[in-house]
């Protein structure tokens, strides 16, 4: 029986010697900066942020123009800017290895429920990006224009993203499983000029025609003058009412190839937007998080090389949709001259062998999966190593939610005995990791190995003091290059500041509960706020309320998501009903249908419960965090005072309900 903190894996001498970080340490030592292993290097990386990030820039030989003014400016978070005076382009770095070897070697391996496993070479991908980027320019799309996609996880979407960012336009994507209003809530904030969209997709063996939702979406985006339709789902509609120009995907790629020497990437300043990712909160519309080319390139090289151990020729396979930041990190592999593996479809259809079969067939060296998914695999009695060889698999990354000690041990027992099992934790806000791993460190059951390089992560108690061995709030005390430049439309940083800097002024509060160990490891214990973690993807309660509270008969609602103690989650929705209304099967079905169609399958709760009333603060705010804490075992008197509650009797009902669930 494995226990939390048990040592379960260490790299052998050959693997340590060949590690990317070993080469970086030698490179630093040659330049007069010797360090004794990971911990010593991490301390320098946060003590001397300028020295560390300048070393990352130089070591990876970033392609840029202009004269460097400052590695980092003196402004505090969130106004810090990096490598001012220089200009670079993200897509240029992803595609820089097109001719670093045989151009016909594989860059993208891909499959879906509609496509068998296939591949695209570096030459094919690069040529498609240049053709599409040139066509976008000819259509008047250029630097700073927003381009959005309602597309699956396919090579076409990767090509569209790289072409968009290659010309300095700003990218944003949403998965086609998202309902119309969820997409409108996102894209309407950034006023796109062009939309890429598919007509449907297949998931779990079922076909989903999205033409109806797409019609609603484009009608709500009046700034869009161009719609590019990708005919993906056979038999689905292809005609969408649209006032602007409608083109087919094939039309956009028609014409002669554009020679590499005839194509110019738009190199941009360090404050220029790269893409907009969305993270939902408990109130208001989803936060439109803007990242820059410089910060993402720096952070992604660091993470790909030193925390994921990706090398030339390696293959990275993460199960993801285009609505999750993990999709954006799949380009870590090409940045390291390797391969990205894409899959669009249900991860466990027809059964939970599927992702393992894809990983084996694609020759994945790094496999990223959610611990909740591994619970499904275990429950189905599947032992992947008994059926597959995993000849190239080096590591299994447990991402998206906390992993139990048993899951760590299961990876070694059931997948591959010498695979590096590592859990890492980050966020949409950084499009990267905060707590990370390294093959130079031992792996312990249930623990994340270390803080990420250049990341001054700490656990703060309520007074704002760092603590070790105690549960605290995960904070970051110093700037990181991939922190958001700003939120779109938030010119005075008001929403940005209120989202992350209110609890501890001048310090980023991430919203996770964490405990650091004496030996430098970390255990993430779930969200400290009311944001919902659904199968590894964070969604906002506000999205659910905007649908549920428009249903006739529902007066109020509250949703929480709590860890179940076995690596999974329990997400109940509590509804306060109008007088004379009962929560019958018809209403439950309507709630589930509306959430699935207007939002996404992830927004559908595990249980819908009628509550006599929803507790609110004296200022009218739903008491999501206190209710969640009670379901995690905290007594009512510790999480909320009756004097601060508008309707104390409602809180008492939830306290009794929480005690029954915990019991």
UniProtKB/TrEMBL annotation:
Report keywords, A-Z: ATP-binding, Ligase, Nucleotide-binding
Q: Where is the AMP-dependent synthetase/ligase domain?
A: 100-480
Please give the superkingdom of this protein's source. Answer: Bacteria
What Pfam families is this protein classified in?
A: ACAS_N, AMP-binding
Domain Acetyl-coenzyme A synthetase N-terminal spans what residues? 38-93
Tell me which SUPFAM superfamilies the record gives: Acetyl-CoA synthetase-like
The family database entries (PROSITE patterns) matched by this protein are listed as:
AMP_BINDING
Q: Which InterPro entries match?
A: Acac_CoA_synth, ACAS_N, AMP-bd_C_sf, AMP-binding_CS, AMP-dep_synth/lig_dom, ANL_N_sf
Similarity-based family: Belongs to the ATP-dependent AMP-binding enzyme family.
This chain belongs to which protein, by name?
Acetoacetyl-CoA synthetase
Species of origin: Sinisalibacter aestuarii
